[in-house]
Amino acid sequence: MARLIIPCRSSSLARFNLLGLLSHAPVPVRSASLPFRNSAKRLTQYRPFLTSEVTCLRKNRFLSHSVDRYKQKSRKLICSVATESVPDKAEESIMDAPKEIFLKDYTKPDYYFETVDLSFSLGEEKTIVSSKIKVLPRVKGSSAALVLDGHDLKLLSVKVQGKLLKEGDYQLDSRHLTLPSLPAEESFVLEIDTEIYPHKNTSLDGLYKSSGNFCTQCEAEGFRKITFYQDRPDIMAKYTCRVEADKTLYPVLLSNGNLTSQGDTEGGRHYALWEDPFKKPCYLFALVAGQLASRDDTFTTRSGRQVSLKIWTPAEDLPKTAHAMYSLKAAMKWDEDVFGLEYDLDLFNVVAVPDFNMGAMENKSLNIFNSKLVLASPETATDADYAAILGVIGHEYFHNWTGNRVTCRDWFQLSLKEGLTVFRDQEFSSDMGSRTVKRIADVSKLRIYQFPQDAGPMAHPVRPHSYIKMDNFYTGKFLFARNYGILL
Ligand SMILES: [Zn+2]
């Protein structure tokens, strides 16, 4: 993840100046889950904008999202499990209370996942998600329980080695599915069917539907809203993903990796089967389905492989993607020339939609962007807009190696993948433009946004000792960690 989009209350805050900076203002932010104890006492904080990270989506959107998130938090058990009795209010509040996660408590997982075969049947009212996971105990003969994360899911069935588990064979609460007794074998197959409701998902984490398109956001902990899983970055598996949906409403079906087959099914529906040959953590999983058109191009790697490049947008935005395609090809060439890193698949997809809340996300071979960070036309875009698109397209592409193929053990290491990749995108922008101007702009951002944060109640180490909600850590400190070290 590169860029948090923090919508502004005033559209006047959206303008970049020549150095790629935005005007800024402190805006009161009401947070229900601040990361630090001392901060949690205050309901209202003044959070300075990370202005280079910031793009105004539309007026007042931040406030409406905050309200949506609040409503979502207040009805978390609505979509919860159907096979358990609904907990009373006291139990509910205990289960939903944020839990502090400590770095010192890290332990290796008791079970690894080798392969994950996902199948999505996308629908207007509900989506059925089927997962088939090959599970490997870390220690042969382990009797440890397997604890899976899951939130806002309706469990339909669980099978182990093909045998359907009955109620009582597992434990279920609003955040976990626990399997206490598992086969003492070298490996076994776990199959789970769940039902989810993307059209009701206003958190914009997991799988959601917006403006008629299905879209995912799984970093940091969104995958647990798609299916029950060990939602932690040290669980790395090879994925396949079959997506099925109505052919007229969703002609484009995308996921990670290479497209291995596609075709029509009954009832006016169609499917696409995707296979990602490289292991990845679940936060890099992505799915997009909708009515999109693509700008197509190719890139020939230094070893002579031809990579198909596609930038997907709503059809009316396609003419504005020329600079993004130029930026992508420049980034691919630069990473080969400067870091010796070559793209590793036959296809690279970029999706730009207006309803993507996190700005940009480096999902393996399926980068998803907010339109603001991809679209540009000479009539309306400034030089700074063009420079920002170059930098962000480069940043997400560079994550293919720094973050994706080489990933984090846990979320305390977020600054490693972000700091290193920010360094790489800064070097890229410096080589493509003026190194001096770029450096002055980056240092200015640190002085304007990072230093005040470090002098205030939101100050925290680059690698914290604990957190309550990981989302709160996508701040300047992590994204600019490398600069910060140099300045100190
Ligand atoms: Zn990033």
Descriptive labels:
single chain, alpha+beta, Immunoglobulin-like, 23% helix, globular, disordered N terminus, binds zinc ion
Task: Give an account of the 3D structure.
With 488 residues, the protein is α+β, with helices and mostly antiparallel strands. The protein has 2 domains: 79-211 and 213-290, tricorn interacting facor f3 domain (Immunoglobulin-like, Sandwich); 291-488, Neutral Protease Domain 2 (Neutral Protease, domain 2). The chain contains 9 helices and 24 strands. The chain has helices spanning 37-40, 61-74, 89-96, 322-339, 383-398, 414-432, 435-454, 476-479, 481-487; strands at residues 27-30, 44-47, 101-102, 111-121, 127-137, 146-149, 154-160, 163-164, 171-172, 176-179, 188-196, 206-210, 213-217, 237-246, 252-255, 258-264, 269-280, 287-290, 293-300, 306-313, 347-353, 360-361, 366-370, 466-467. The strands form 6 sheets. An 8-stranded mixed beta sheet has the order 8-7-11-5-4-14-17-16, with no helix packed on it. The longest helix has 20 residues, at 435-454. The chain is globular. Mean pLDDT is 82; it is low at 3-87 and 480-488.
Structural class: alpha+beta
- Please estimate the helix content: 10-25%
**How many distinct domains?**
2
CATH architecture label name of the largest domain: Sandwich
CATH fold call of the largest domain:
Immunoglobulin-like
Q: Going across the major beta sheet, what is the strand order?
A: 8-7-11-5-4-14-17-16
CATH class of the largest domain: Mainly Beta
Question: Any idea what the radius of gyration is?
Answer: 22 Å
Poorly predicted regions: 3-87, 480-488
DSSP summary: helix tally: 9
Number of strands: 24
Oligomer: single chain
